[in-house]
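During the reporting period the student researcher (J.K.) took over the structure-prediction task from the postdoctoral fellow and processed the backlog of single-chain submissions. One of the processed entries is reproduced below for the supervisory committee.
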Amino acid sequence: YAEILRDRANIAISLVQMTGTYGEEVAEIDRNLFLPVPRLNRFTMIRSRDDLASLESDYSTDFRSVDDLIDTMHVRCGAWKAAGAPEVKLSQSYHRAMDFGTPDPSRAAVVFRQLRDGQYPGLDTPDGRVLEDVLVHGAVSAATASGLPVQFHVGPRAGSYGSLEGTSLAPMSGLIRAHRDARFDISHSGFPYLTEAAVLAKTCENVFLNLSWMHIYSPEGCVRALREWIRMVPINKIVGFGDDLYWVDSILGHLVMARQNVAHTLAGMMIEGLLTESDSVEIGRALFNSNPAALYGISSSS
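J.K. obtained the following structure tokens:
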């Protein structure tokens, strides 16, 4: 890993999602190469009474209310921050559109009581959505209170026959406006709705566009997006690369593609007289280095 990531790819540090059953524990990893990104999925996507019982068992806590769950998320985020996590992740788009609406704590409390009593109709129901909406707002507040950005998967789902319902960033506008002190790291940048995402990144200072996975998913889409974004979105709002891959050799290959896409974009804009050479060097360094370093609170390297 050190040879491929550090020596050949020149990657200063990689953010790695915590795996295991729930992705909540900050595992022992080589901190010379990696930083851990834990998830709040388990707290925000409760599917059954058994899920709640499992949380209670693992955290030695009797969750009597929605506020109890949110309080525990605050504690976890504080612990993760202290353990060196640069952000936390949520994956709601794998089962729903990203419309978290205006939270309704009173109704969510009723649904939570149904959950405790074994009468919960399930996550993918209107009542389940009411509870989830409140918990997602609570998760964003918890992460923000600990100084952690929140990464949302907003884009294509991994695997076959994935739905497009969670690919658009536009439905998140209410959540984004409600948490103006938060930092929203939009993994996959709302692909294929890249212009839509760019409008929110242009107008909302707390939205950051992350091209993770996209260079290998759609090289042409990335070039088109970058041409538009560079002239539309503040440059410091764009994270130019994230591999989102398991295998170390494919990470290097994906990075080569990302560099080619960025170089192709910048060279074309230079030829058109839209950028100078010094502009292009500065933008390239920002996309691959200083922007992610600033977003995740990591020391930038040259």
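The committee noted the following: The first strand starts at residue 14 and ends at 17.
J.K. will present the remaining backlog at the next meeting.
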